[in-house]
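Worked Example 4.2. Consider the chain below.
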Amino acid sequence: GLLHPRDQRRVAQMKRKDPPTEQDGDHERGTPSKRQKLDDAPKKEEPVIVNGVLKNPQTHQVGVEPTAEIKIRDAKAREEEAQGKLHTRIVVNDNTPENLAYLLNLKRIFSNQLPKMPREYITRLVFDKKHKAVCVTRKDGPNQEKVVGGIHYLPFPTQGFIEIVFCAVSGDEQYKGYGTYIMNQLKVQAKKEGLFHFLTYADNFAIEYFKKQGFTTDMSEYDRKAWAGYIKDYDGGTMMYCRVDRELDYISAPHWIREQRKKVVDKLLELSTSHIKYKGFSEFKAPHNVQRIAMDRLQVLLDVGWNPKPYQDLMSPETQQKIYKINEEFLSAFKNDKDAWPFLTAVSREEVKDYYEVIKDPIDLGTMDARLKKGGYYITQEMLVADLKRMMENCKTYNPSGNMFHDIATRLEKKYLEKWKPAPLL
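Applying the procedure from the previous section yields the following structure tokens:
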């Protein structure tokens, strides 16, 4: 076979489901061993090229792809909590100086982060004695405590739900995971109060945040009779709902979910070679300039169980001749359309000086016709149509809507491409 001895050992180990050995260069996933780094690449046979096809494709392993880190969104906030810097408290307006100070800081954050909300309205609700707040503070030094964010909410004990009125993090504390941390703290508090449903009105900028916290815009999940008439409607807002799970520990859940995902990924890496990186093929460049490689002779594909039969059937002379005739007829009909004239040849660099600065992947009917007649390029009907679609997209990208050429491309798309389906290979 074409497999390097080191890769042969790897395949044999994967079949036995044994862990890779150090000499295989993968004893620490994502980190090649010293031996692997020093190994010379295996000697390649001289390329065998027939009609632009590389008949003996050869490659070898050059490393492994590091596994992406599975992150917890509020990891930094949790770290600060473990260090004794971050504190969460439930604040109500009980007229004590301490709580009034926390509410005043929250009002400032809500006003700054929700500029379209009237400040008088924010002030009235923040200091309303029926409302509560999850207030998160951080100690930045001796006698230095900063309110970093919070959620202001109104509980409805008889109805079993909480309305989230305001939710914000200080502008200079964004993207540190505080938003997720604060929401999880509210869920913990809600369970203590026996309230297992959250409702809120979210503006367009907040919808994605709430979705990440388990909210949905599908209000059919919660009985309308439980909340209708109890909370105020807001113009321009989207009603969102979240059910608080009675059994789930929202504080520790992200950790064990991460561990579960890690174990799944580790198991997949035992059974897969998708993380192994192989050297690319230089034969596509000069002096060889091959058009494609014989995929059914690529040993690394065969080693992972790829079935070459469909590919071999596709590349049989009989099938390729049928595809060629279908493509030839389709391209000819496209070229002969009365609207095809702007696309018959490549755009002139002299006449349209900035075209190739805007369009990085140009294509035209003349180039496509040459590729088709040369053979071996459009080996499927889909490949030909993909180039036609790219040609239309290039035209509409360069020429704005209302431009003559933009309109021509739109007409050709509707006529030939929008409802296109591959012809049966009878």
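Residues 273 and 346 are 42 Å apart (CA to CA). The chain is about 40% helix and 15% strand. Compare this with Example 4.1 before moving on.
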